[in-house]
């Protein structure tokens, strides 16, 4: 915990007496949105982050990788090779710009940001396994100090806790928690934020406001004008950033990291858009118009960044088609490896419930194994689906 | 009307909303998109956005505000998108809804329904497959209802909406659309707190509910015994009488449920049989249940819940064969 001026407990002295009752209103807040490259590709050279050419190209490559990965995942889901899948199309700049800042020792809790895992070194195969419902995928995430929160918002107190530990140990790493706009409607998110603000722990909360929680548009989720302003209630400073501008996102998160490392949590709202359905089982045309989608299609983060690269003369060194081909090859290999994943033994179901299997659970396992041996007809009802 | 379970939910909601202006339907994605399982489809179009409301993503606020609305005289039917997301709102159930009548000595009541799909087998991610009726049955003041057929779904949901106490209505989502049957049109109520004898038999009583019922029926058809099949329907308060009477006749019993064995409702069924029919028993009561483990992710989830061969083996153990 850093030293903070603790609130003085003596009663406040009003600056002046009399006058009308005054409201404290969100309408008086100025909530700027950080942007470096405009949708038309204009920018001010002096405010562009100081990255080398390779890093600029890397950002592009990761965004394309995200897009190709999503496309391929939807394709195999349609073929019946995944349970379901939720894409991140439209959010590439928001995801890549933020995750590009993450250091190997940082901890990361994910919402809709699959490529952030790949950027940490999680093999693509394991994300395929995750959407196929194979537990080992989550082990792989954990080996990279990461996990995916399926119970929306439930990870914020975890993030506050790991960050608290980092603070006690005076560690160099930080905790980064992704969350969605919808998550900010849950109580648990606010309780986690409040604790992080109260204890001043090194946590960076990155909220991707992709405008929807399944069918619920952001405008109907809350009476607040922005998500960023909510952090102020917990004494946490916030940044609102244009999530379609990869350089602005990178810039904002890098700036925030410096603060977080000094022991002050930061909350970032990244304004973006979920271009595809919530998951492959959702039909967005029940709740939003094609015109709206079209407008955001035209605010494509990859296109915007490409125009920047062109202006900088970096585009000539980039072979877009070759990148796509490389990612497709990587996906093919990942899929083949995922398909090679062997069916597991039934004891897997009893593994990791506790460190040591209690006697009653051991009995349940032994009985079940014996039952399966004696009753092979049970397999008429059991379909292990390692291939989705 | 020929309907599936999920269509019967929808029909009950339509019918009760038309009959009683106090009935409100709300939850995540229930209005505009008609619910992720389409259970609330068409309600917003028919009854308007004041009575059918998409709420912000908060199970706590959904259950808590339903309780407040009920205290104020409305009849809320709140949807929890998946039962695996009820736990944050457990506090509202335990600390408010279930004890409002008690706390206010009957001045206020929480006449509300929380509907939620439960159970494994729909190939979803973590937290989408639980069967935790045992935990909810443990809450005094809360009723827990689980239908297993389309007509019971309509009748029990109607009764739940009209019930003066809070009802947790757990819908067996694996069989939401797996079969159809004739469902009475219009006003149709099946009383809460009454089990149904689905098949009469002399040799052994099988007690089950919800998504396990079709499995239990199949198992009963495959064993060489005359099985009496009891569908509990209301988990709490439980109709022990029907179960006990059946066991007094057959002298043997098996309880089948999908949720974990320890602290499961099956333990309570066994205890009630022991309390009231111990001397009639010719064999220990068998339990065929889910395991005391997390429900596996989708690749291995079929291993988790009882299937007809497992249930048949349980019946055979109860028969000493
Ligand atoms: C506690 C909880 N309630 C409901 C759900 C079902 N659900 C899954 S994602 C989602 C919407 C999440 O919206 P948001 O936080 O904006 O994330 P996004 O999907 O847009 O990335 C809902 C309601 C859930 N997973 N967890
Ligand atoms: Mg969202």
Automatic annotation (TrEMBL), chain A:
InterPro entries: Alpha-ketoacid_DH_E1_comp, DH_E1, THDP-binding. It is an enzyme of class 1 (oxidoreductase). Its EC number is 1.2.4.1. GO terms for molecular function: pyruvate dehydrogenase (acetyl-transferring) activity. GO terms for biological process: branched-chain amino acid catabolic process; sulfur compound biosynthetic process. Residues 1-23 are annotated as: Disordered. The keyword Oxidoreductase applies. Keywords: Oxidoreductase, Pyruvate. Residues 60-341 form the Dehydrogenase E1 component domain. CDD domains: TPP_E1_PDC_ADC_BCADC. This is Pyruvate dehydrogenase (Acetyl-transferring) E1 component subunit alpha. It comes from Halarchaeum rubridurum.
UniProtKB/TrEMBL annotation, chain B:
One of its GO terms (molecular function) is pyruvate dehydrogenase (acetyl-transferring) activity. InterPro entries: THDP-binding, Transketo_C/PFOR_II, Transketolase-like_Pyr-bd, Transketolase_C. It is an enzyme of class 1 (oxidoreductase). Residues 3-178 form the Transketolase-like pyrimidine-binding domain. Pfam families: Transket_pyr, Transketolase_C. Its cofactor is thiamine diphosphate. It comes from the Archaea. Coiled coil: none annotated. GO terms for biological process: organic acid metabolic process; sulfur compound biosynthetic process. Its EC number is 1.2.4.1. Keywords: Oxidoreductase, Pyruvate, Thiamine pyrophosphate. This is 2-oxoisovalerate dehydrogenase subunit beta. It comes from Halarchaeum rubridurum.
């Amino acid at each position: 915990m850093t030293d903070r001026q603790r609130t003085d407990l003596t009663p406040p002295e009003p600056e002046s007496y009399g006058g009308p009752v005054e409201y404290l209103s969100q309408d008086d807040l100025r909530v700027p949105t950080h942007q470096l490259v405009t949708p038309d590709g204009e920018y001010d050279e002096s405010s562009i982050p100081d990255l080398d050419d390779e890093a600029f190209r890397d950002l592009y490559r990761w965004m394309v990788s995200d897009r190709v990965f999503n496309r391929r995942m939807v394709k195999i889901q349609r073929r019946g090779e995944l349970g379901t899948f939720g894409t991140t199309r439209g959010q590439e700049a928001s995801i890549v710009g933020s995750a590009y800042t993450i250091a190997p020792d940082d901890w990361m809790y994910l919402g809709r940001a699959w490529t952030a895992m790949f950027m940490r070194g999680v093999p693509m195969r394991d994300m395929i396994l995750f959407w196929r419902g194979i537990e080992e995928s989550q082990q792989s995430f954990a080996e990279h100090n990461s996990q995916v929160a399926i119970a929306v918002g439930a990870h914020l107190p975890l993030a506050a806790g790991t960050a608290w530990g980092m603070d006690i140990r005076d560690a160099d790493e930080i905790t980064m928690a992704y969350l969605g706009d919808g998550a900010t409607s849950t109580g648990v998110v606010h309780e986690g934020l409040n604790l992080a603000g109260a204890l001043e722990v090194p946590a960076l909360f990155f909220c991707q406001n992709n405008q929807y929680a399944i069918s619920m548009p952001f405008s109907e989720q809350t009476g607040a004008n922005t998500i960023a302003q909510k952090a102020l209630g917990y004494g946490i400073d916030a940044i609102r950033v244009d999530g379609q501008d990869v350089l602005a996102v990178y810039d904002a998160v890098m700036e925030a990291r410096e603060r977080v490392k000094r022991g002050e949590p930061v909350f970032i709202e990244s304004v973006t858009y979920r271009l595809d359905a919530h998951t492959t089982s959702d039909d967005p045309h029940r709740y939003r118009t094609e015109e709206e989608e079209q407008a955001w299609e035209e605010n494509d983060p990859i296109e915007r960044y490409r125009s920047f690269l062109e202006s900088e003369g970096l585009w000539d060194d980039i072979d877009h088609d070759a990148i796509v081909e490389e990612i497709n090859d990587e996906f093919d290999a990942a899929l083949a490896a995922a398909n090679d994943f062997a069916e597991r033994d039934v004891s897997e179901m009893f593994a990791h419930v506790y460190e040591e299997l209690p006697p009653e659970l051991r009995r349940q396992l032994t009985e079940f194994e014996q039952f399966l041996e004696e009753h092979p007809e049970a397999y008429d009802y059991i379909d292990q689906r390692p291939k989705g | 009307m020929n309907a599936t379970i999920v269509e019967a939910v929808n029909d009950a909601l339509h019918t009760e909303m038309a009959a009683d202006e106090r009935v409100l339907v709300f939850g995540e994605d229930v209005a505009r998109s008609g619910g992720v399982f389409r259970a609330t489809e068409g309600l917003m179009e028919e009854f308007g956005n004041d009575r059918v409301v998409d709420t912000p993503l908060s199970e706590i606020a959904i259950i808590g505000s339903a309780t407040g609305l009920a205290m104020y005289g409305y009849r809320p039917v709140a949807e929890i998108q998946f039962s695996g997301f009820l736990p944050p709102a457990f506090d509202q159930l335990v600390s408010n809804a279930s004890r409002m009548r008690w706390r206010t000595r009957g001045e206020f009541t929480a006449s509300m329904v929380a509907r939620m799909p439960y159970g494994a087998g729909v190939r979803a991610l973590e937290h989408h497959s639980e069967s935790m009726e045992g935990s909810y049955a443990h809450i005094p003041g809360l009723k827990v209802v689980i239908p297993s057929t389309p007509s019971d779904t309509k009748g029990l949901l109607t009764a739940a909406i009209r019930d003066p106490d809070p009802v947790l209505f757990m819908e067996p989502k694996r069989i939401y659309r797996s079969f159809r049957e004739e469902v009475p049109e219009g006003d149709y109520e099946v009383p809460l707190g009454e089990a149904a004898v689905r098949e009469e038999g002399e040799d052994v009583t099988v007690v089950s509910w919800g998504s396990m019922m079709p499995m239990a029926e199949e198992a009963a058809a495959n064993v060489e015994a005359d099985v009496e099949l009891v569908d509990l329907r209301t988990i709490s308060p439980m109709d022990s009488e029907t179960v006990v009477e059946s066991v007094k006749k057959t002298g043997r019993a098996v309880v089948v449920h999908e949720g974990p064995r320890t602290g499961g409702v099956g333990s309570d069924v066994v205890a009630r049989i022991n309390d009231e029919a111990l001397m009639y028993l010719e064999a220990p009561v068998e339990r065929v249940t889910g395991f005391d483990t997390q429900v596996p992710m989708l690749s291995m989830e079929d291993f988790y819940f009882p299937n007809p061969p497992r249930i048949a083996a349980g019946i055979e153990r109860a028969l000493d064969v």
